[in-house]
């Protein structure tokens, strides 16, 4: 049976279309994906993403453990800073992509994908020493994402924290509305700026209501996972289970920038990744646009101009900003070097497309910016 987030009743009352996602009843849309999408790009949207997982890792060995299981160099972060990274297996395959928050000198919070909570927790426990404290707080923490160019103005009305001075991928801990100890993070999955708020579940509804009230003079849209997906697609952000998984490496997925093969002495999967880099990546994740209105779905075949199969679509959607289909997929590196034209096939028809480098849009062309 699906779990419910602390905001479930709010979604139902607002007329959201609910569905099971990663074991939770989550809103897919309220008024419509395109409308919610454009609200985030031009003004502001609010998401319930409480299905995400959160782990605490604390102690003198906390940094060493996280350095061992992740590809980025966490030693470079300071207290109050967050870092995007991946966990890889011995073969260099991606166990998950995640964000790690440095809460203090010896305390960290890992934020993992909802579908990977159990797998990630088991991996953490398997690789940590006994004297390192770990706690899975996923069931007690909720997460609200307030995203878009008006997000700062709205949040500023209900907190005394100086949120305008929180740099990108940094955070502060303070009071929001009447709720203490809220993690206010300048992060997001939309590309349009804003904040993510980590709140104890018992206070989550109060914070949600406070934001809705503070946003009365703005065009706040309650947004579901449908718009969240189209927004991340326009930015070319990877979705675990589609664009990355344990059979793909960070180097293949264009995540070499968070894979520190030189500055880190060792981490799980490093040897395999060093070997892959020395030989050269065979397949790489690319972005593409299609003509017409037919969306390329995950699993569709990517072909060359002669209709010969060369790769596969990992994600596809219709871009509300561009008003055209866009997608991500894997093709041989050598093909990308010499060609930009592709065909995408659903097994019956071929659709003409062109390889483009994500992000697909320039978010500066939308809204007024924070």
Annotation keywords:
3 domains, Elongation Factor Tu (Ef-tu), domain 3, single chain, 22% helix, 20 strands, 6-stranded mixed β-sheet, alpha+beta, Gyrase A, domain 2, 370 residues
Characterise this structure.
The chain is of the alpha+beta class and 370 residues long. The chain has 3 domains: 3-48 and 139-233, Gyrase A, domain 2, CATH 3.30.1360; 54-136, Alpha-Beta Plaits (2-Layer Sandwich), CATH 3.30.70; 282-359, Elongation Factor Tu (Ef-tu), domain 3 (Beta Barrel), CATH 2.40.30. The chain is built from 9 helices and 20 strands. It has helices at residues 8-13, 33-42, 62-69, 117-127, 151-156, 201-214, 225-235, 270-279, 333-338; strands at residues 3-4, 17-21, 24-29, 44-48, 53-58, 82-88, 94-104, 107-112, 133-136, 141-147, 171-176, 179-185, 194-200, 220-222, 283-290, 301-303, 309-319, 324-332, 341-345, 350-356. Strands 11-12-13-10-4-14 form a 6-stranded mixed beta sheet. Strands 15-18-17-16-19-20 form a 6-stranded antiparallel barrel. The protein has a 5-stranded antiparallel beta sheet with strand order 6-7-8-5-9, covered by helices on one side. The two termini are 40 Å apart. 43% of the residues are buried.
